[in-house]
Write a structure and sequence with these properties.
single chain; alpha+beta; 2 domains; four-stranded antiparallel beta sheet; 7 helices; 4 strands; 44% helix; 15% strand; elongated
Length: 205
């Protein structure tokens, strides 16, 4: 006579049918929840405005966030984005003419990922460059931080366009208020000169 089939509601033998025991499942669940918390809390505790609660919760998770590179600035886009920045350039060509452009350039930077990558370059530089009305001591102290990055940008522009020298400026685009948007008005952009660069004898700007 064949053995009777087990009842649908009969308990399983976990030593044979379960891959993980209960303690392993609890441990894996806690690790997953910790990872999800790190993904969520990193943008919440990012650049101001950030809540005091988010700033406190992120402290024990900073080693994990740093190791897994989870500190992305999602609030850079929403819900309260600040003004955008671009780098305006003018390249002097060997024939005496000038070529102008912007980094990033929404018209020529394709695919969109390339525009986004170059947008990150201009925002990185903007985070290091003080405002034009900052005290001279502040501007001088910040210069060693941003000038190597700007020199790299200048070198790439000179090589790409075969230029003799390049003038660079940081542009902080005016962020209109809702009322200004409705009225189709806006203020002026804030322009900060970054200097003029040319190749020296060692091919370094």
């Amino acid at each position: 006579m064949p053995a009777p089939l087990p009842r649908p509601d009969s308990p399983r033998n976990c030593t044979q049918d379960c891959i993980w025991n209960r303690s392993t499942r609890w441990g894996a669940s806690l690790l997953i929840l910790g990872y999800l918390l790190a993904v969520i809390i990193a943008p919440l505790a990012g650049p101001p405005p950030a809540s005091a609660l988010a700033s406190a919760l992120i402290q024990p998770l900073r080693p994990l966030i740093g190791a897994l590179y989870l500190g992305h600035g999602y609030r850079f886009f929403a819900p309260d984005p600040g003004p955008g920045h671009s780098i305006r350039w003018r390249v002097s060509l060997p024939d005496g003419s000038w070529q102008t452009g912007s980094l990033p350039d929404p018209d020529s930077d394709r695919p969109r990922l390339l525009y986004h990558r170059r947008f990150m370059i201009s925002e990185k530089v903007a985070s290091l460059v003080p405002a034009p009305d900052a005290p001279p001591a502040v501007r001088d102290a910040a210069k060693p931080q941003w000038q190597p990055l700007v020199k790299g940008i200048a070198a790439q522009l000179l090589l790409r366009h075969g230029g003799r020298l390049v003038e660079l400026s940081m542009v902080e685009h005016y962020l209109p208020t809702p009322e200004e948007s409705i009225a189709s008005t806006r203020g002026a952009d804030l322009v900060t000169p970054l200097g003029t660069y040319a190749f020296a004898g060692d091919r370094q700007p």
